[in-house]
Structure formats: structure tokens, C-alpha cells
Recover the amino acids of this structure.
């Protein structure tokens, strides 16, 4: 279960990998779905599920902010967007699922894994670009389009200025 939890959290952390064809961050959506399936599996398996007070408080404030934003939208003559409301409730379900799943694994292990993977990719890009002049772009490799941040650093050469 730990491997599936790490994969789902890693996929959720890839929310900036936005697919223009689907018009959604497809990896994050798949990670949320996997997270919800793992939580449903844990509930159906009848494992002990404790809903903490922090989770209830967080969900309360999330619902409260949803109510305020709904009132502000209706009060200012705005239109209700079904996709936004659906996304809001999917977020609530995902938060609840994460609260259930995190009880099965160590939060420190999950955070260590996420930070390690992202730091490894960051430093790999840094060393490959500034050390060897090779622009490693995982977004281009996975999604098929370039990162938007490369334009700013393409004219800057770190090692040449030393």
C-alpha cells in the first residue's frame, strides 16, 4: 500500500503538468482518483478509520469558503460554473481521502519521498544545464511542450560569468 500511496501523492504533486488537450492537470487528476480508490479500499476492508479533529476543522473551513464564494458569485451577478463546483467537491473528497490514507503510512516517509524526487529532478536540470549546456526538460519529455521558464535562463550562462 505504501508504494501506491507514494505514487498517488507524487502524481498529485505534478499538478503543473497541464494537458491542453484534456484541459486538466491529468497526472494530478489520476493521482486524486488513485488516492480516493485507496481510501475506499481501506474503508471497504473495514480497517480502523479515525477522522481527526484537524481534518474536520479543515473540511469545515473549506465548506465555509465554498459558501462565501458561492454567495459572492451570486451576489455580484456572476454565473455558476458546474465544473468549478464539481472541482470543489472533488477537492473535498480528495482531502477526506488523504486524511484516511495518511493514517496507513508515515507522513514523514511520504514527504521525504516527494521532496527527494523533486530535488533530484531540480538538481539534475541545474547540473545538466549549467555544467554541460544540456537543457533537460521533463515537461517536454512527458507532455510534449517546453517549460516556460527556460527562456529567462537561456541567455544567462552561470559558468561563463565565473
Amino acid at each position: 500500500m505504501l508504494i501506491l500511496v507514494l505514487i498517488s501523492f507524487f502524481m498529485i504533486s505534478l499538478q503543473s503538468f497541464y494537458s491542453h488537450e484534456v484541459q486538466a492537470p491529468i497526472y494530478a487528476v489520476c493521482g486524486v482518483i488513485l488516492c480516493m480508490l485507496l481510501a475506499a479500499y481501506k474503508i471497504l476492508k473495514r480497517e480502523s478509520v479515525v477522522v481527526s479533529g484537524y481534518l474536520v476543522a479543515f473540511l469545515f473551513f473549506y465548506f465555509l469558503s465554498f459558501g462565501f464564494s458561492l454567495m459572492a458569485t451570486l451576489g455580484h451577478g456572476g454565473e455558476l460554473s458546474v465544473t468549478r463546483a464539481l472541482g470543489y467537491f472533488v477537492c473535498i473528497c480528495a482531502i477526506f481521502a488523504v486524511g484516511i490514507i495518511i493514517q496507513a503510512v508515515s507522513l514523514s516517509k511520504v514527504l521525504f519521498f516527494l521532496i527527494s524526487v523533486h530535488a533530484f529532478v531540480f538538481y539534475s536540470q541545474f547540473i545538466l544545464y549549467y555544467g554541460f549546456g544540456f537543457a533537460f526538460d521533463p515537461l517536454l519529455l512527458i507532455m510534449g511542450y517546453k517549460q516556460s521558464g527556460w527562456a529567462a535562463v537561456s541567455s544567462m550562462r552561470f559558468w561563463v560569468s565565473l
In short: The two ends are 48 Å apart (CA to CA). Helices lie at 2-13, 26-44, 53-75, 82-101, 107-132, 138-142, 150-154, 158-161.
